[in-house]
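lol ok so funny story. i was supposed to be doing the assay writeup but got distracted and ended up predicting the structure for this chain instead. priorities right. anyway since i did it might as well share w the group, maybe its usefull for someone
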Amino acid sequence: MSKKKTTDLQILRNLKKYVDANGFAPSIRELCLLSDIESTSTMSLRLARLEGAGFILKEPVKTRTLRVTELGRKLLERARTA
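and the output, tada:
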């Protein structure tokens, strides 16, 4: 698996774990810390790509509204069993 895909999976895992534990999404900075990504700009680009692929949803105007979609959960499940 490429590093980019591995990082995207790690972001999805970290997002899901955080939301499950806290009931709301992490901030971009918190997600950067959880995923070992230094740049919030890089994280924003990765999140936009994940959203475009249908793995996460985000409400455009509100903060902390990231959610892993059913498609994203299926991807995480497949990655865990692979």
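The beta strands are 56-57, 67-68. The chain has one domain: 3-81.
back to the writeup now i swear
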